[in-house]
Design brief:
29% helix, 23% strand, 11 strands, two-stranded antiparallel sheet, alpha+beta
Length: 192
Amino acid sequence: MGGWNRLNLEGIRFGRLLVIGQATNRGKKRMWPCQCDCGKTLSVRTSCLSTLRQSSCGCLTAESVAESNRRRGVSRTENGQRTCYICLERKPIGEFVNSKSTADGKEYFCRGCVNSRRGKAERSAARAVKSALRSGRLVRQPCEQCGNHKSEGHHDDYAQPLSVRWLCRAHHAQWHSKNQPMNGTAKPTVTL
């Protein structure tokens, strides 16, 4: 076991999480009981604590999203309706994309906006890449510009779904800022 697994982390704070007890083993993983500043208790893997990959129970993300939405003028769900942050139209909650990361299980953009922004060819290419990554037919590469291992897949041609260029988020955004198609909208991309 690595060095972190040998330590007693009880009483140590990691972001909003305070380790409140001794670790238990779940298979080969050591899980630490933690209490978030919001009061919620949860078990967190040693590796998630040591790298600060998990620094709250999820309340930090929810607060960040809420603050971002407040700045953009997107309101919460009221009377079964929500404002789409892309088209800014007030629509029934059922017209919004499903999500596991939001409290009510819905994203902040409607299905109409998602479908208009991502064409059928792009969605098909994204599914092909994700399937190839899972099966091992395609291997994620570092950014071709800087070598960053946190890379995103970019398609130059959706007719060739497994022909992917790997770019980090910064170089991906830079590529799109310089390569605008004739109609003025950004060329579609696949973020994996």
